[in-house]
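Entry 14. Structure prediction run on the chain below.
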Amino acid sequence: MKFATKALHVGQDPDPATGATVPPIHVTTTYTQSAPAEHKGYEYSRSGNPTRDNFEAVLAALEGGPACAAFASGLAATNTLFNTLRPGDHVVAYADVYGGTFRLLDQVMKPWGLDASFTEDTSPDAFDRIMTEKTKIVWLETPTNPLLRCLDIKAIADVAHARGAKLAVDNTFATPALQQPIALGADYVVHSTTKYIGGHSDVIGGALIVADEADMEAVRYHQNAAGGVPGPFDSYLAHRGVKTLHIRMERHVQNAQRIAQHFEKHAKVASLYYPGLKSHPDHALAERQMVGPGGMVTMVIKGNADDCFKFCKRTKLFSLAESLGGVESLLCHPARMTHASIPAEVREARGITDSLVRLSVGIEDADDLIADIEYALNG
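Output returned:
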């Protein structure tokens, strides 16, 4: 089956009891057993739930992996992967990462004993230079958050594997509709399903997909033992979002491309980052590695911080809010919002200044979105 067909049919077998085309939501917390330890595959819904199983099945199929574990948030999925490591182990990552991931590595996992190193260089050689014999995981976002750099998954996977490490790719910004890291050599794929997977800004969730089913054993153990699982309604909502992922991503890309082209040389915009533009440093890589450049656009507003804050307050269709990937357009100020946990001097050195904004371009009419940004810039 091709992608769109998988999105609609995997994990969606009709209910055998009633013939319901949409499987029922299993809201039970526990399952009646015929005798002690004799059951029908389910004991307790933290350990397993049919609605969650269906959602995990479709994400695994879309990412091209044998298994998926769903979580209560993207950070819960990330935390689970890092918790499969041991104190003294080492993680390598590109510096432009989601603020929550940086906080998790720097303030939660570091005191526990997990070491992390960050490279400011996107080249595979840069990762190789900072790896050690203790490096267990190389962590990538691509495109990155919020500067939208693209990293060569295949080349960095080769570097990681040559050094005995595994590659984990946060595929939240691209989604499997636009990029499939496992096919390029990744060992793990992580999602905040809150974003494009759910797609409607109404459910928090996360997921971790493996390339090798043997790696799922430790993940499943931590999923059950630590308990950061989604409930059945959350699993259902996220699964419902998956069914329209392919057509939503087409519109997100179309709108983002138009906005990027319109504002790339705007008098009130100091710089604009979008992998779909030829001016982007990773444009050729994005064309080779992705089906489309995504629905995120990042801009630096000309002037000082106050000018940027005024812009943020004036948009009408772009809601000033954290998160991304919903059908409606969102505007974020990373330095004060999603990346505030990164020390100011570190943020600014990486280009996340008080003049930078991140646009999650929705599926509204592109002309209306362009007019909204024009109004906010020129008001």
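The chain has a mean pLDDT of 96.
Filed with the rest of this week's runs.
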